[in-house]
Design brief:
92 residues, alpha+beta, 4-stranded antiparallel β-sheet
Length: 92
């Protein structure tokens, strides 16, 4: 994210996203910098994978919602980089 080094004000808008997968569960982890050097790490409660036919649909829908939420965060940060990355080319 080169645009952040050229425009420090964008540091507080960019996110780093990850998924923690342990055994039969997954958790979304979102890190951002609120102010100064303070990093906020948010963890979504673990979601378990489906274990049988009875809970398959409910758990898959929850996992898809988690993936959709993560994609929205990634898209927001990516759009920042595309917009500001192009506007600062040659400046940094």
């Amino acid at each position: 994210m080169k645009f952040v080094s050229c425009r420090p004000s964008l540091t507080h808008k960019a996110h780093v996203l990850g998924y923690n997968i342990n055994g039969d569960a997954v958790r979304l982890i979102d890190a951002d910098i609120l102010d100064g050097h303070i990093v906020r790490i948010r963890r979504i409660s673990e979601l378990e994978y489906p274990s049988d036919n009875d809970d398959y649909i409910l758990k898959v829908v929850s996992l898809l919602e988690l993936a959709s939420y993560g994609k929205a965060i990634i898209d927001d940060t990516y759009s920042l980089e595309n917009y500001y990355g192009r506007s600062i080319e040659g400046i940094c």
